[in-house]
Amino acid sequence: MKLFFSIQGGDFTRAGHPSSEVKKVLKQLDIDGKTIKNIVIALYEAEVNVVAHAWRGTVSVEIDENKIIIVVEDEGPGIPDIEQAMQAGFSTASKKVREMGFGAGMGLPNMKKNTDELIIESEVGKGTKVKMINCF
Amino acid sequence: MKLKEIAAVLNATTSCGADKLEEEVEMGYSSDLMSDVLTLDTDNLILITGLVNVQAIRTAEMADIRAIVFVRNKKANEQMLELANENGLVILESPYSLFKSSGLLFQAGLKPIY
Fold first, then answer.
1. Model-level pTM greater than 0.90?
2. ipTM exceeding 0.85?
3. Domain ranges, ordered by start, for chain A
4. Residues of B in contact with A15 (CB under 8 A)
5. Which residues of chain A neighbour B55 with C-beta distances below 8 Å?
6. Per-residue pLDDT tens digits for A100-118
7. Does A14 participate in catalysis according to the annotation?
8. Taking a C-beta distance cutoff of 8 angstroms, is the pair B62, B81 a contact?
9. Rg (CA), chain B
10. Structural domains of chain B ordered from first start
11. Which residue of the set A45, A47, A73, A114 is catalytic?
């Protein structure tokens, strides 16, 4: 099964919509509750990152019998130092993002914690691609 | 602790999920930082927060949290209530501060996560 969503940078009112839809689908597929929570938290963190930092992005979801592959790709400023961005507490978020309850530098580490595999590719000035894999 | 007992302790009004006040929650977590809430492994909890926006509702949805108390007399707007209703969440609104709300619930027997 394949799902596709768009994300608009800066639009916090819509952030979480793809995660919500993915959660509904996984529930229908009778996936274990803890696994669903891991998947949707990682996706939600990724969505918030796109909304907080990038201009626009897409979410592509592929679900098969034993795993889910989610690719979140954005057009944005990119991440100059991925290793540094992965450190808990490192953040470049704006005041607006912090006012929304995010931007504490915990998103990427939390995505790692909630996925079986997390691959981040980024090019400064172009954008970032995040691939997350969770097995059922 | 039953949600209706929590509402009584906090002098809170129920703006969503009034039919679910008989449900029990074991633990409470107070935070205005949703990033922290998203790191919790527990889910049978009530979120106590002064961060009143759609992302507080979304965070609860993703983290399988069934009830939120908005403190400091802040009110959920229509969009938030619609989303909360869609997800079967209970929304309480208390006039008390985050500190007072947390203290009263701790005293009443609601457990901390850590």
1. yes
2. yes
3. 2-135
4. 55, 58
5. 12, 15-16, 48, 100-102
6. 999 999 999 999 999 999 9
7. no
8. no
9. 12
10. 3-100 (3.40.1390.20)
11. A45
